[in-house]
Amino acid sequence: MSERKPLIAGNWKMNLDHQQAIALVQKLSWALKDVSHDFDKVEVSVFPPYTDLRSVQTLIEADKLPLVLGAQDLSKFDSGAYTGEVSGAFLKKLAVKYVIVGHSERRQHHNETDEDIQAKVAACFKHNLVPVICVGETLEELEEQGAAAVPIRQLTAALAGHKEVNEFVVAYEPVWAIGTGKVATSEQAAEVAKKLRQSISEQVSIEVSSATRILYGGSVKSSNVAGFLASEEVDGVLVGGASLDIDEFTGICRFQKHVTL
């Protein structure tokens, strides 16, 4: 493990209404308290749907829960005639810290381009939100271009053209491993993370590269998380379906109990 604080991020995707969200967060906080989770050593963030954000924010603040709130997307626009869009300014008012940007499902189902993602990263920086920039390749791209080629291209495009680069997180999610049950090996994840960090060093600076957390995502479970986080190159995980299962997600958050170096 590196000195960067690990981040365990739970992306709920389009699941749970606001009442179900309150129940899940309560159960998660109780479960983590029961196992004496040290939030100073491992950060835990949840990413509910837009309609749940206010309810979860209120619960976190009222009960002083050490969980961090994230959003699943944001608009590249600040305000205006953009029906259905949600501004970064609105998210900031809800005490959101992290925003997922460029998830493969957004790229695939909403035709988001590298230019769209670059603009959304800019919106995050403008509103003092931390983008979790998702990168990853399909199985065909992996076979044709090799490991890391597509993720590096995507990250380079996302970071290009910004006058000032604020804090950001990178999530390497091979598309072929999302929701398929297929998982990259810990060695594959570590190698791609290492190359992504080198790319950040070349494009931005060594200091930013050293400080940036790089996560792995793609069929992460409590039974395999320790392998990914045993590497000093991987600083956390972006969890999908397993984040809706209290026992599984709690087990993932407790990865340090199982890491052997």
Folded structure, characterized:
This protein is 41% helix and 14% strand. It is of the alpha/beta class. It has a single domain (7-257), classed as Aldolase class I (TIM Barrel, Alpha-Beta Barrel), CATH 3.20.20. Helix 10 links the parallel strand 7 (213-217) and strand 8. Helix 1 (18-34) runs parallel beside helix 2 (53-62), helix 1 (18-34) packs across helix 11 and helix 5 (114-126) packs across helix 7 (149-159). The longest helix has 18 residues, at 186-203. The mean pLDDT is 94.
Summarize this entry quickly.
The protein is built from eleven helices and eight strands. With 261 residues, it is of the alpha/beta class. It has one domain: TIM Barrel (Alpha-Beta Barrel).
- Under CATH, the topology is which? TIM Barrel
For the terminal residues, how far apart are their CA atoms?
A: 8 Å
Order of helices and strands: EHEHEHEHHEHHEHHEHEH
Number-wise, the strands total: 8
Radius of gyration: 17 Å
Report the average pLDDT across residues. 94
Oligomeric category:
single chain
Strand content: 5-15%
Going by CATH, the homologous superfamily would be Aldolase class I
InterPro entries: Aldolase_TIM, TIM_sf, TrioseP_Isoase_bac/euk, Triosephosphate_isomerase, Triosephosphate_isomerase_AS
GO molecular function, one term: triose-phosphate isomerase activity
Protein name: triose-phosphate isomerase
Pathway: Carbohydrate degradation; glycolysis; D-glyceraldehyde 3-phosphate from glycerone phosphate: step 1/1
Give me the secondary-structure topology.
Blueprint: E1 7-11, H1 18-34, E2 43-47, H2 53-62, E3 68-71, H3 88-93, E4 98-101, H4 104-109, H5 114-126, E5 130-135, H6 139-145, H7 149-159, E6 169-172, H8 186-203, H9 206-211, E7 213-217, H10 225-229, E8 236-239, H11 246-253
Helix pairs in contact: 1-2, 1-11, 5-7, 7-8
